[in-house]
From TrEMBL:
This is Zn-dependent alcohol dehydrogenase. Keywords: Metal-binding, NAD, Oxidoreductase, Zinc. SUPFAM superfamilies: GroES-like, NAD(P)-binding Rossmann-fold domains. The keyword Nucleotide-binding does not apply. SMART domains: PKS_ER. It comes from Streptomyces spinosisporus.
Amino acid sequence: MRAAVLHEIGQDKLEVLDDVEAVGFGPGRVRIRVRATGLCHSDLSAMSGVLPQPGPFVPGHEGAGEVVEVGEGVRNLKAGDRVVVCWLPACGACPACKRGQTELCLAGFMNAGTPNFKRPAGDVFGFAGTGTFTEEVVVDAGCAVPIPDDVPFDIAALIGCGVTTGLGAALNTADVEAGSSVAVIGCGGVGISAIQGARLKGAAEIVAVDPVASRRESALEFGATRAVSPDELAGAKQEVTAGEGFDYVFEVVGKSATARTAYENTRRGGTLVIVGAGAMDDFLQLNMFELFFDEKRILPSMYGGGDVLRSYERTIALWRAGRIDLAGLITHRVPLADINEALDQMRSGTALRTCIEI
Ligand SMILES: [Zn+2]
Ligand SMILES: [Zn+2]
Protein backbone atom coordinates (compact mmCIF):
# COMPACT_ATOMS: atom_id res chain seq x y z
CA MET A 1 0.00 0.00 0.00
CA ARG A 2 0.98 3.65 -0.31
CA ALA A 3 2.46 5.72 2.48
CA ALA A 4 4.66 8.82 2.76
CA VAL A 5 7.97 8.02 4.43
CA LEU A 6 10.75 10.16 5.88
CA HIS A 7 13.91 8.14 5.35
CA GLU A 8 16.15 10.03 7.79
CA ILE A 9 15.53 12.57 10.55
CA GLY A 10 16.61 15.99 9.29
CA GLN A 11 15.43 15.51 5.70
CA ASP A 12 12.79 17.97 4.54
CA LYS A 13 10.98 15.89 1.94
CA LEU A 14 8.85 12.78 2.15
CA GLU A 15 8.79 10.00 -0.40
CA VAL A 16 5.45 8.44 -1.31
CA LEU A 17 6.12 4.73 -1.67
CA ASP A 18 3.82 1.86 -2.61
CA ASP A 19 5.71 -0.98 -0.91
CA VAL A 20 4.72 -0.19 2.69
CA GLU A 21 2.79 -2.61 4.89
CA ALA A 22 0.97 -1.76 8.13
CA VAL A 23 2.08 -4.26 10.79
CA GLY A 24 1.11 -5.21 14.33
CA PHE A 25 -2.48 -6.40 13.87
CA GLY A 26 -3.69 -8.78 16.58
CA PRO A 27 -5.61 -8.92 19.87
CA GLY A 28 -6.68 -5.48 21.07
CA ARG A 29 -5.63 -3.85 17.80
CA VAL A 30 -7.58 -2.19 15.00
CA ARG A 31 -6.81 -1.77 11.31
CA ILE A 32 -7.96 1.60 9.94
CA ARG A 33 -8.36 2.74 6.33
CA VAL A 34 -7.29 6.39 6.61
CA ARG A 35 -9.54 8.73 4.60
CA ALA A 36 -8.28 12.18 5.57
CA THR A 37 -5.38 13.53 7.56
CA GLY A 38 -4.24 16.99 8.49
CA LEU A 39 -0.67 18.20 8.51
CA CYS A 40 0.15 19.48 11.99
CA HIS A 41 3.27 21.50 12.77
CA SER A 42 4.46 18.72 15.07
CA ASP A 43 4.93 16.52 11.98
CA LEU A 44 7.51 19.01 10.71
CA SER A 45 9.10 19.19 14.17
CA ALA A 46 9.48 15.40 14.24
CA MET A 47 10.97 15.43 10.73
CA SER A 48 13.55 18.06 11.71
CA GLY A 49 14.42 16.37 15.01
CA VAL A 50 12.94 19.04 17.31
CA LEU A 51 10.54 16.40 18.68
CA PRO A 52 12.02 12.98 19.49
CA GLN A 53 11.02 10.31 16.97
CA PRO A 54 12.89 7.26 15.63
CA GLY A 55 13.25 6.97 11.86
CA PRO A 56 12.57 6.06 9.18
CA PHE A 57 8.98 6.95 9.89
CA VAL A 58 5.57 7.75 8.44
CA PRO A 59 4.50 11.18 9.76
CA GLY A 60 0.89 12.19 10.44
CA HIS A 61 -1.01 11.94 13.72
CA GLU A 62 -4.16 13.90 12.92
CA GLY A 63 -6.30 11.48 10.96
CA ALA A 64 -9.69 9.91 10.49
CA GLY A 65 -11.00 6.92 8.60
CA GLU A 66 -12.94 3.67 8.71
CA VAL A 67 -12.27 0.54 10.68
CA VAL A 68 -11.32 -2.33 8.35
CA GLU A 69 -10.99 -5.10 10.94
CA VAL A 70 -10.74 -5.47 14.70
CA GLY A 71 -8.56 -7.87 16.66
CA GLU A 72 -9.70 -10.31 19.31
CA GLY A 73 -11.10 -8.71 22.43
CA VAL A 74 -12.06 -5.39 20.83
CA ARG A 75 -15.71 -4.89 21.77
CA ASN A 76 -16.53 -1.25 21.12
CA LEU A 77 -15.61 -1.19 17.42
CA LYS A 78 -16.52 -3.12 14.27
CA ALA A 79 -15.62 -3.01 10.59
CA GLY A 80 -17.12 0.05 8.90
CA ASP A 81 -17.13 2.29 11.99
CA ARG A 82 -15.90 5.84 11.45
CA VAL A 83 -13.12 6.82 13.79
CA VAL A 84 -10.74 9.60 14.74
CA VAL A 85 -7.16 8.47 15.24
CA CYS A 86 -6.14 9.51 18.75
CA TRP A 87 -2.36 9.65 19.20
CA LEU A 88 -2.73 9.95 22.96
CA PRO A 89 -4.98 7.06 24.00
CA ALA A 90 -6.11 6.72 27.60
CA CYS A 91 -5.40 3.41 29.34
CA GLY A 92 -8.12 4.13 31.90
CA ALA A 93 -6.15 2.55 34.72
CA CYS A 94 -3.12 4.75 35.49
CA PRO A 95 -3.18 7.49 38.16
CA ALA A 96 -3.50 10.26 35.50
CA CYS A 97 -6.50 8.55 33.86
CA LYS A 98 -8.16 7.98 37.23
CA ARG A 99 -7.87 11.68 37.98
CA GLY A 100 -9.52 12.49 34.65
CA GLN A 101 -6.30 13.90 33.20
CA THR A 102 -6.17 11.46 30.31
CA GLU A 103 -4.00 13.89 28.33
CA LEU A 104 -1.19 12.88 30.71
CA CYS A 105 -1.58 9.12 30.22
CA LEU A 106 1.72 7.63 29.05
CA ALA A 107 0.28 4.34 27.79
CA GLY A 108 0.40 5.45 24.15
CA PHE A 109 4.12 6.11 24.36
CA MET A 110 4.85 2.54 25.49
CA ASN A 111 4.54 1.44 21.84
CA ALA A 112 6.75 4.26 20.55
CA GLY A 113 9.71 1.92 20.08
CA THR A 114 7.66 -0.59 18.07
CA PRO A 115 7.51 -0.14 14.28
CA ASN A 116 4.00 0.38 12.85
CA PHE A 117 5.04 -0.38 9.27
CA LYS A 118 7.52 -2.35 7.26
CA ARG A 119 9.02 -2.26 3.80
CA PRO A 120 11.18 -4.80 1.98
CA ALA A 121 14.07 -2.55 3.06
CA GLY A 122 13.21 -2.84 6.78
CA ASP A 123 11.11 -1.49 9.64
CA VAL A 124 9.35 1.87 9.49
CA PHE A 125 7.98 3.67 12.55
CA GLY A 126 4.78 5.71 12.77
CA PHE A 127 4.85 9.21 14.25
CA ALA A 128 3.71 9.26 17.87
CA GLY A 129 2.79 5.59 17.55
CA THR A 130 0.27 6.30 14.76
CA GLY A 131 1.44 7.56 11.32
CA THR A 132 -1.52 8.66 9.22
CA PHE A 133 0.12 9.67 5.90
CA THR A 134 -0.81 6.22 4.70
CA GLU A 135 -3.70 4.22 3.30
CA GLU A 136 -3.86 1.94 6.33
CA VAL A 137 -2.55 2.01 9.86
CA VAL A 138 -2.81 -0.51 12.73
CA VAL A 139 -3.25 0.96 16.20
CA ASP A 140 -4.40 0.01 19.68
CA ALA A 141 -8.20 0.01 19.99
CA GLY A 142 -7.87 2.99 22.35
CA CYS A 143 -6.38 5.04 19.49
CA ALA A 144 -9.54 4.54 17.37
CA VAL A 145 -12.27 6.77 18.74
CA PRO A 146 -15.73 6.32 17.16
CA ILE A 147 -17.38 9.44 15.76
CA PRO A 148 -20.97 10.11 14.68
CA ASP A 149 -21.85 9.58 11.01
CA ASP A 150 -22.51 13.28 10.38
CA VAL A 151 -18.89 14.30 11.01
CA PRO A 152 -16.99 14.34 7.69
CA PHE A 153 -13.55 12.71 7.69
CA ASP A 154 -11.71 15.97 7.01
CA ILE A 155 -13.37 17.66 10.00
CA ALA A 156 -12.82 14.60 12.19
CA ALA A 157 -9.12 14.57 11.34
CA LEU A 158 -8.71 18.12 12.70
CA ILE A 159 -10.26 17.04 15.98
CA GLY A 160 -7.50 14.43 16.27
CA CYS A 161 -4.92 17.07 17.18
CA GLY A 162 -4.93 20.76 16.26
CA VAL A 163 -8.47 21.74 17.21
CA THR A 164 -8.46 19.71 20.42
CA THR A 165 -5.14 21.29 21.42
CA GLY A 166 -6.07 24.92 20.71
CA LEU A 167 -9.65 24.86 21.85
CA GLY A 168 -8.78 22.97 25.03
CA ALA A 169 -6.04 25.46 25.91
CA ALA A 170 -8.68 28.19 26.13
CA LEU A 171 -11.57 26.14 27.55
CA ASN A 172 -9.78 23.75 29.91
CA THR A 173 -6.35 25.10 30.79
CA ALA A 174 -6.91 28.86 30.83
CA ASP A 175 -10.66 28.71 31.47
CA VAL A 176 -10.76 32.25 30.04
CA GLU A 177 -12.92 34.62 32.04
CA ALA A 178 -15.66 36.58 30.25
CA GLY A 179 -14.70 40.17 29.49
CA SER A 180 -10.97 39.53 29.67
CA SER A 181 -8.14 40.52 27.30
CA VAL A 182 -6.34 37.79 25.38
CA ALA A 183 -3.34 37.64 23.05
CA VAL A 184 -2.57 34.59 20.93
CA ILE A 185 0.99 34.37 19.58
CA GLY A 186 1.11 32.07 16.56
CA CYS A 187 -2.04 31.79 14.46
CA GLY A 188 -1.89 28.54 12.52
CA GLY A 189 -4.61 25.92 12.98
CA VAL A 190 -3.93 25.55 16.72
CA GLY A 191 -3.72 29.29 17.42
CA ILE A 192 -6.95 29.91 15.50
CA SER A 193 -8.60 27.20 17.59
CA ALA A 194 -7.42 28.96 20.76
CA ILE A 195 -8.93 32.18 19.38
CA GLN A 196 -12.25 30.40 18.81
CA GLY A 197 -12.09 29.05 22.36
CA ALA A 198 -11.42 32.50 23.82
CA ARG A 199 -14.34 33.91 21.82
CA LEU A 200 -16.64 31.14 23.10
CA LYS A 201 -15.65 32.01 26.66
CA GLY A 202 -16.58 35.66 26.11
CA ALA A 203 -13.19 37.36 25.99
CA ALA A 204 -13.66 41.07 25.30
CA GLU A 205 -10.48 41.58 23.29
CA ILE A 206 -8.56 38.91 21.39
CA VAL A 207 -5.33 40.08 19.77
CA ALA A 208 -3.89 37.70 17.18
CA VAL A 209 -0.12 37.95 16.70
CA ASP A 210 1.53 36.43 13.63
CA PRO A 211 4.16 37.52 11.10
CA VAL A 212 2.11 36.16 8.15
CA ALA A 213 -0.49 38.59 6.77
CA SER A 214 -2.88 35.87 5.51
CA ARG A 215 -2.97 34.30 8.97
CA ARG A 216 -3.75 37.64 10.55
CA GLU A 217 -6.66 38.04 8.13
CA SER A 218 -7.91 34.54 9.00
CA ALA A 219 -7.63 35.26 12.71
CA LEU A 220 -10.00 38.23 12.33
CA GLU A 221 -12.54 35.99 10.55
CA PHE A 222 -12.38 33.46 13.39
CA GLY A 223 -13.01 35.91 16.20
CA ALA A 224 -9.88 37.95 16.89
CA THR A 225 -10.75 41.60 17.53
CA ARG A 226 -7.35 42.78 16.24
CA ALA A 227 -4.49 41.14 14.39
CA VAL A 228 -0.93 42.44 14.51
CA SER A 229 2.57 41.45 13.43
CA PRO A 230 5.04 40.63 16.25
CA ASP A 231 6.60 44.11 16.12
CA GLU A 232 3.16 45.69 16.54
CA LEU A 233 2.41 43.71 19.70
CA ALA A 234 3.81 46.39 22.04
CA GLY A 235 1.45 48.97 20.50
CA ALA A 236 -1.55 46.65 20.77
CA LYS A 237 -0.71 45.93 24.42
CA GLN A 238 -0.63 49.66 25.07
CA GLU A 239 -3.96 50.30 23.31
CA VAL A 240 -5.88 47.30 24.64
CA THR A 241 -4.55 47.09 28.20
CA ALA A 242 -3.12 50.60 28.79
CA GLY A 243 0.29 48.95 28.97
CA GLU A 244 -0.56 46.63 31.85
CA GLY A 245 -0.42 43.45 29.80
CA PHE A 246 -3.04 40.92 28.77
CA ASP A 247 -5.07 38.82 31.18
CA TYR A 248 -4.16 35.75 29.12
CA VAL A 249 -1.41 35.17 26.59
CA PHE A 250 -1.27 31.93 24.59
CA GLU A 251 2.11 30.88 23.20
CA VAL A 252 1.35 28.65 20.20
CA VAL A 253 4.79 28.52 18.58
CA GLY A 254 6.86 26.28 20.85
CA LYS A 255 9.99 28.44 21.13
CA SER A 256 11.62 30.00 24.19
CA ALA A 257 11.89 33.38 22.44
CA THR A 258 8.13 33.63 21.81
CA ALA A 259 7.40 32.22 25.28
CA ARG A 260 9.54 35.00 26.76
CA THR A 261 7.65 37.58 24.68
CA ALA A 262 4.39 36.02 25.83
CA TYR A 263 5.53 36.20 29.46
CA GLU A 264 6.41 39.87 29.14
CA ASN A 265 3.05 40.67 27.57
CA THR A 266 1.08 38.91 30.30
CA ARG A 267 -0.11 41.31 32.99
CA ARG A 268 1.06 40.89 36.58
CA GLY A 269 -1.16 38.20 38.05
CA GLY A 270 -2.25 37.17 34.55
CA THR A 271 -1.95 33.79 32.87
CA LEU A 272 0.56 32.57 30.30
CA VAL A 273 -0.56 29.39 28.54
CA ILE A 274 2.16 27.38 26.80
CA VAL A 275 0.59 25.45 23.92
CA GLY A 276 3.42 25.11 21.37
CA ALA A 277 5.48 21.90 21.32
CA GLY A 278 9.14 22.83 21.70
CA ALA A 279 12.56 21.22 21.88
CA MET A 280 14.29 19.59 24.86
CA ASP A 281 17.35 21.84 24.49
CA ASP A 282 15.44 25.15 24.21
CA PHE A 283 15.28 26.75 27.67
CA LEU A 284 12.93 29.51 28.81
CA GLN A 285 14.72 31.99 31.08
CA LEU A 286 12.91 33.64 33.96
CA ASN A 287 14.57 35.33 36.87
CA MET A 288 13.58 34.40 40.39
CA PHE A 289 12.58 37.95 41.26
CA GLU A 290 10.08 38.46 38.43
CA LEU A 291 8.74 34.97 38.96
CA PHE A 292 7.56 35.64 42.51
CA PHE A 293 7.04 39.41 42.31
CA ASP A 294 4.83 39.49 39.20
CA GLU A 295 2.82 36.43 40.18
CA LYS A 296 2.14 35.44 36.61
CA ARG A 297 0.66 32.00 36.31
CA ILE A 298 2.40 29.77 33.76
CA LEU A 299 0.09 27.01 32.60
CA PRO A 300 1.36 24.48 30.08
CA SER A 301 -1.40 22.83 28.06
CA MET A 302 -0.84 19.36 26.64
CA TYR A 303 -3.33 18.20 23.98
CA GLY A 304 -6.03 20.50 25.28
CA GLY A 305 -5.24 20.01 28.95
CA GLY A 306 -8.27 17.90 29.80
CA ASP A 307 -9.98 14.56 29.33
CA VAL A 308 -9.33 13.75 25.67
CA LEU A 309 -12.56 11.94 24.78
CA ARG A 310 -14.62 14.57 26.55
CA SER A 311 -12.78 17.22 24.51
CA TYR A 312 -13.64 15.39 21.27
CA GLU A 313 -17.32 15.18 22.21
CA ARG A 314 -17.47 18.83 23.18
CA THR A 315 -15.79 19.88 19.94
CA ILE A 316 -18.30 17.89 17.87
CA ALA A 317 -21.21 19.40 19.81
CA LEU A 318 -19.89 22.96 19.30
CA TRP A 319 -19.23 22.31 15.60
CA ARG A 320 -22.68 20.79 15.04
CA ALA A 321 -24.33 23.78 16.69
CA GLY A 322 -22.36 26.16 14.47
CA ARG A 323 -20.56 27.71 17.43
CA ILE A 324 -17.08 26.97 16.02
CA ASP A 325 -15.91 26.88 12.41
CA LEU A 326 -13.83 23.83 11.57
CA ALA A 327 -14.34 23.65 7.79
CA GLY A 328 -12.84 27.14 7.48
CA LEU A 329 -9.58 25.89 9.01
CA ILE A 330 -8.97 23.73 5.95
CA THR A 331 -7.37 26.25 3.59
CA HIS A 332 -5.71 23.72 1.26
CA ARG A 333 -6.32 20.18 0.02
CA VAL A 334 -3.85 17.86 -1.66
CA PRO A 335 -3.80 14.14 -2.53
CA LEU A 336 -1.22 11.98 -0.72
CA ALA A 337 0.93 11.97 -3.89
CA ASP A 338 1.47 15.73 -3.44
CA ILE A 339 2.30 15.58 0.27
CA ASN A 340 5.45 17.69 -0.20
CA GLU A 341 3.26 20.57 -1.38
CA ALA A 342 1.49 20.41 1.96
CA LEU A 343 4.84 20.63 3.76
CA ASP A 344 5.75 23.73 1.74
CA GLN A 345 2.37 25.35 2.51
CA MET A 346 2.89 24.76 6.23
CA ARG A 347 6.47 26.05 6.20
CA SER A 348 5.57 29.22 4.29
CA GLY A 349 2.67 29.92 6.65
CA THR A 350 0.08 30.06 3.85
CA ALA A 351 -1.97 27.15 5.23
CA LEU A 352 -3.95 27.00 8.44
CA ARG A 353 -4.51 23.34 7.73
CA THR A 354 -3.87 21.31 4.62
CA CYS A 355 -6.14 18.29 4.37
CA ILE A 356 -4.41 15.35 2.74
CA GLU A 357 -6.97 13.14 1.05
CA ILE A 358 -6.11 9.47 0.90
ZN1 LIG B 1 -3.72 6.05 31.64
ZN1 LIG C 1 -0.46 17.73 16.25
